[in-house]
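INFO batch 0412 | record 1 of 1 | parsing
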Amino acid sequence: MKLFRINSLGSAVRAILGWPLLIVGLYFLAALIGSAIPANPDWREPEHGITLFVETNGVHVSLIVPMAAAGQDLSNLIRPEHLADRDLYGTHAMIGWGHGRVYRNARTWGDVKVGDVASAIIGSDDTTLHIYHLVDPRPAPYRKPFRVSQQEYAKIIGAIRSTFRLAADGQSRAYPAYAPDNLFYDSKGHYSAYTTCNEWTGAVLRKAGVRIGIWTPMPGGVMRWFD
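INFO prediction complete | emitting tokens
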């Protein structure tokens, strides 16, 4: 009887642990498949156009765009006066979107809080845009350039603009972030395990007509398309 109870307990423990591991495994498999199937498969990089970048820190993928190009100007949203030192105002903005509490509380992996991660997985409307100011960015192993047409660029900027959550006076609201050259901004959107920070970047490019995976929740799922 005692042996039966031990075996039953062991089976229950394996079942309890097995289901979450199975779900996680299926999630990563779906992410791998989704990132490998191209949306906009006929897209080709134009010979002439606007140069953008995707940049990863290994966790997040952000989109780097000019502050002003091809008739599109972000300076009324990402304004010089938001910075304590206006000399840091960049020629380009590196823009990422994600879960607000994770972004604000976790500058490094060591700062990550279990409650924030749980909120991100379950889903939350607490989201933010994280914007770095860059001056004349250059390609690097973690920063890949690509070109888009003016029409595609207009759609990308339109998608970025639509993510800002404006105050009652119609202005964007900026908050201190990790260093003087980067800020958080109020944003729209619902974060979840499906709509991650990396999927936001993928979705912006997908909607503009750029070739990228149909679902890109992981950083590698975005970056693979620009190697």
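INFO post-check: Residues 37-226 form one domain.
INFO record closed
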